[in-house]
Specification:
Length: 343
């Protein structure tokens, strides 16, 4: 009888664990859809900042906007001497900034790694007005020297209002197509949704160290927000940094085969001592899910993530990545298309 009772208890615990896992996953998907409605470009993240701030408020999470506009969420630890963990995602996505008017067109400058195709005529875009509304337009081609990465946009300039304003690709905010999620900006709204799910779960946990959620600005222009947080020591130096990002799929980091434990990025390799926490969590998830969970491990050299910014300032760093198709909206055929990841 004791054996049967112990088996029943074990299965009950496993079922409870899987239910919690599914709840967190569904919450992350709901938040990702909501965040998709808030277009952002580097330095123009106000809509997504407002949504995340409101969600943190609704969840009763402690958060601040730091002097640079990043969001820092903290669930304090039980032991001040224990090292904490910080889960980091960025708010922006490559786009354009309207910098002037010329007759009946707007002049916009590229912000971040937009595809080469987006500097050519015929690309559909949306200008985001100060009230959050969108005005549709079309790229008419380069303005002046192509190396300046400035374009003219055919649009009704009177509808745009005061400049400067951000410009994003006119692509769907969020589409769930079977097991595939397609969005204008999965990089890095998927990371933001995942960090929110972590903080929601952490609010109910009792780990000794503090848990932080860091939502950073202007990553696409050189990890700006992350570098400022690290430089100013806005989280304790011993905090383990876990960058969460959608990153270009590669052999060994394939779409549909689970999230990737990120060994490093295009700039640096990460810390084995920090990665050990992810390996432990992976093995526990595989065991408890009876094979329903699977993951990959790879050096994601398709780009540089925020772990490198913190690592350069002496923090222990590691990362997770969702393998991404159409990185920065560049489809294999050269067109501008939604990014996509596996659900």
């Amino acid at each position: 009888m004791s054996y049967s009772s112990g088996t029943e208890t074990y299965h009950a615990q496993e079922e409870s664990y899987l239910n919690l896992w599914e709840s967190d996953r569904q919450y992350a998907l709901e938040m990702l859809e909501k965040l998709g409605s808030a277009p952002a470009a580097p330095y123009f993240e106000e809509q997504v900042v407002a949504l995340i701030s409101q969600e943190c408020d609704d969840l009763g999470l402690n958060f601040v906007h730091d002097p640079f506009g990043n969001i820092i969420v903290e669930r304090p630890g039980l032991d001040n001497a224990a090292a904490g963990m910080a889960f980091v995602a960025h708010l922006d996505h490559p786009g354009f900034e309207v910098v002037g008017r010329k007759r009946n067109v707007l002049i916009a400058r590229a912000l971040g790694g937009v595809p080469k195709k987006s500097l050519e005529a015929g690309v559909a875009v949306s200008v985001i007005c100060a009230d959050g509304s969108r005005v549709s337009g079309v790229v008419a081609g380069p303005d002046g020297d192509p190396s300046a990465r400035e374009v003219t946009i055919e649009i009704d300039p009177d509808r745009v209002g005061e400049l400067p304003r951000p410009v994003v690709f006119d692509l769907p905010d969020y589409v769930l197509d079977g097991k595939t999620i397609r969005m204008r900006a999965l990089d890095d709204l998927a990371g933001c949704a995942a960090v929110l799910a972590v903080m929601r779960s952490a609010a109910e946990s009792n780990s000794p160290g503090a848990i932080f959620g860091l939502f950073t600005r202007a990553e696409e222009l050189g990890l700006i927000g992350a570098r400022l947080i690290a430089d100013q020591r806005l989280v304790p130096k011993a905090t383990i940094i876990i960058s969460i990002e959608s990153s270009r799929s590669l052999p060994g980091a394939d779409i549909g085969r689970g999230p990737v434990i990120r060994v490093g990025d295009a700039q640096s390799t990460f810390d084995q001592s920090a990665e050990a926490y992810l390996i432990c969590a992976r093995d526990r998830l595989i065991d408890r899910s009876c094979g329903a969970f699977y993951a990959q491990r790879q050096l994601m050299s398709g780009g540089t993530c925020e772990a490198s910014a913190f690592g350069a300032h002496g923090y222990p760093v590691t990362g997770l990545a969702f393998p991404l198709g159409n990185y920065h909206n560049a489809a294999p055929d050269g067109s501008i298309a939604c990014e996509y990841i596996d659900k």
